[in-house]
Specification:
single chain; 88 residues; mainly beta; mini-chromosome maintenance (MCM) complex, domain 2; 4-stranded antiparallel beta sheet; 3-stranded antiparallel beta sheet; 1 helix
Length: 88
């Protein structure tokens, strides 16, 4: 899983490793929870909390966005680059 803030890589984390990741940036604070091969936004201090309401993701290409904090969480295969864009 890859986390970016304002387009810059913040960190990469394995979905197989259960952990809590605290993300504190100039834009705000978010808490990710990785467990059971899935990741979800556990907490965020953004006003709308859409990222928290998104729920857990686990499949390659799935994304959680926190637009007020310019944060994205993308599930990628380990060792693979995340897609630059996805067309529907």
């Amino acid at each position: 899983m890859r986390v970016t803030v304002d387009g810059a890589l913040y960190g990469t984390y394995a979905l197989s490793e259960e952990r809590t990741v605290q993300i504190d940036t100039a834009y705000g604070s978010n808490t990710l929870r990785i467990e059971g091969g899935r990741v979800r936004m556990e907490e965020a201090d953004c006003p709308n909390k859409d990222c928290v309401e998104k729920g857990a993701i686990s499949k390659t290409g799935q994304i959680i966005l926190c637009l007020p904090h310019k944060l994205s969480v993308t599930v990628v295969n380990e060792g693979e680059e995340a897609p630059d864009a996805i067309s529907y």
